[in-house]
């Protein structure tokens, strides 16, 4: 029923059907209210049983981890209830956090003071600070190990089947509602799909260009990481990672693109080695005969075919003239044109 109510809410929103939406919401509210009232009545009717104190023999213990002062420890115990409980000794497995300082006090075949519920014998907790009387009794007591067959378990511990049943019920209720409205839902989905395809076909030949100018304390695009961040901003602005040209200057970056161009004739912005570009600029300034480079520019263009990476050209200009060097997408220099050289 919960699955059906939730599915009715979703279907009502999708179809904008007010009666279906109101029915699902009202039914879900009613179920939550009934569950709340049932829980209140159950809590008032079932008073928790009083805990009792007893001694227990530590059969085995193992720390299961922890990085704080309280370490989770798994204990195997033989609990010896008091004679008035008229219950024989039994085994139980529990997990409890013990302070790191107190762990040496618990050892195999040692005696510990515990608390348990007579009606829930698996609910056992070790008393870490027992009274002086119980501490004395623990020091003097000798308890024999109970047979392994007396091991008690929490009947609610294996809740995997119950969780699976709940999941199947939720899915079955949701499927029932969705199938009841499958005609309207599928018709609505087809309409939306066809409408979504129209603008994509009309934008198949979209061309775009944009640029940005950086400013601030580290405004130069040669600053570490600044090129990549700026390129990603331009990618988000044009809504495309593939461009036909990229130009980078000291304070400006610009891209151009055409969405009709094949991918082999474009540049993929995220894959460019922006971290290598400042080194190429320094190389061009130092080795191409331009002693006082007044400006520099990086032009990245497609490689011209499948399997050919983008071409990177670094151009520097100064009083001596203009020079450039070419590199591939890995940053390897493939050609130089110093000041005064032709060709």
Spell out the blueprint of helices and strands.
Layout: H1 2-15, H2 18-45, E1 52-63, E2 70-80, E3 90-99, E4 111-117, E5 120-126, H3 132-140, H4 160-180, H5 182-202, E6 207-213, H6 226-238, E7 242-243, E8 245-249, E9 252-258, E10 267-268, H7 277-287, E11 293-301, E12 311-318, E13 321-327, E14 333-337
Antiparallel strand pairs: 1-2, 1-4, 2-3, 4-5, 6-9, 7-10, 8-9, 8-11, 11-12, 12-13, 13-14
Helix pairs in contact: 1-2, 1-4
Describe the structure.
There is one protein chain. The chain is an alpha+beta fold and 343 residues long. Helix content is 34%, strand content 29%. It is built from 7 helices and 14 strands. It has helices at residues 2-15, 18-45, 132-140, 160-180, 182-202, 226-238, 277-287; strands at residues 52-63, 70-80, 90-99, 111-117, 120-126, 207-213, 242-243, 245-249, 252-258, 267-268, 293-301, 311-318, 321-327, 333-337. The strands form 3 sheets. The chain has a 7-stranded antiparallel beta sheet with strand order 6-9-8-11-12-13-14, covered by helices on one side. Helix 1 runs antiparallel to helix 2 (18-45). The longest helix has 28 residues, at 18-45. 19% of the residues are buried. Residues 188-203 have low confidence and may be disordered.
The count of strands amounts to: 14
Uncertain spans, ≥5 residues at pLDDT below 50?
Answer: 188-203
Spatially, the strands of the biggest sheet line up as 6-9-8-11-12-13-14
- Cα-based radius of gyration, to the nearest Å: 38 Å
Order of helices and strands: HHEEEEEHHHEHEEEEHEEEE
- Give the oligomeric state: single chain
| Outline | elongated
The biggest beta sheet is recorded as: 7 strands, antiparallel
Helical content stands at 25-40%
Strand content: 25-35%
State the helix count.
Answer: 7
Structural class: alpha+beta
Q: What is the CA-CA span between the terminal residues?
A: 80 Å
The residue-averaged pLDDT reads 82
């Amino acid at each position: 029923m919960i699955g059906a109510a939730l599915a009715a809410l979703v279907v009502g929103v999708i179809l904008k059907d007010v009666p279906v939406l109101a029915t699902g919401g009202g039914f879900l509210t009613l179920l939550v209210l009934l569950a709340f009232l049932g829980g209140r009545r159950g809590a008032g009717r079932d008073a928790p049983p009083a805990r009792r104190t007893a001694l227990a023999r530590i059969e085995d213990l193992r720390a299961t981890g922890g990085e704080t002062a309280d370490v989770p420890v798994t204990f195997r115990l033989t609990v010896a209830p008091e004679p008035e409980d008229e219950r024989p000794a039994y085994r139980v497995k529990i997990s409890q956090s013990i302070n790191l300082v107190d762990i040496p006090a618990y050892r195999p075949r040692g005696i510990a003071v515990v608390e348990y519920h007579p009606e829930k014998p698996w609910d056992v907790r070790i008393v870490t600070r027992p009274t002086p009387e119980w501490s004395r009794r623990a020091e003097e007591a000798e308890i024999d190990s109970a047979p392994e067959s007396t091991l008690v378990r929490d009947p609610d511990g294996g809740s995997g089947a119950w969780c699976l049943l709940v999941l199947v019920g939720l899915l079955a209720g949701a499927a029932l509602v969705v199938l009841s409205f499958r005609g309207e839902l599928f018709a609505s989905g087809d309409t939306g799909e066809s409408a979504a395809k129209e603008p994509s076909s009309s934008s198949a030949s979209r061309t775009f260009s944009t640029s940005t100018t950086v400013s601030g304390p580290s405004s130069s695009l040669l600053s570490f990481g600044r090129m990549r961040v700026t390129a990603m901003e331009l990618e988000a602005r044009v809504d495309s990672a593939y461009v036909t040209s990229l130009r980078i200057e000291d304070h400006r970056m610009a891209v151009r693109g055409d969405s009709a161009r094949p991918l082999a004739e474009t540049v993929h912005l995220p894959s460019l080695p922006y971290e290598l570009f400042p080194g190429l600029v320094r190389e061009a300034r130092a080795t191409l005969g331009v002693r006082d480079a007044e400006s520099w520019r990086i032009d990245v263009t497609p490689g011209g075919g499948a399997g050919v990476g983008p071409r990177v050209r670094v151009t520097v200009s100064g009083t001596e003239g203009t020079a450039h060097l070419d590199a591939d997408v890995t940053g390897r220099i493939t050609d130089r044109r110093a000041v005064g050289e032709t060709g």
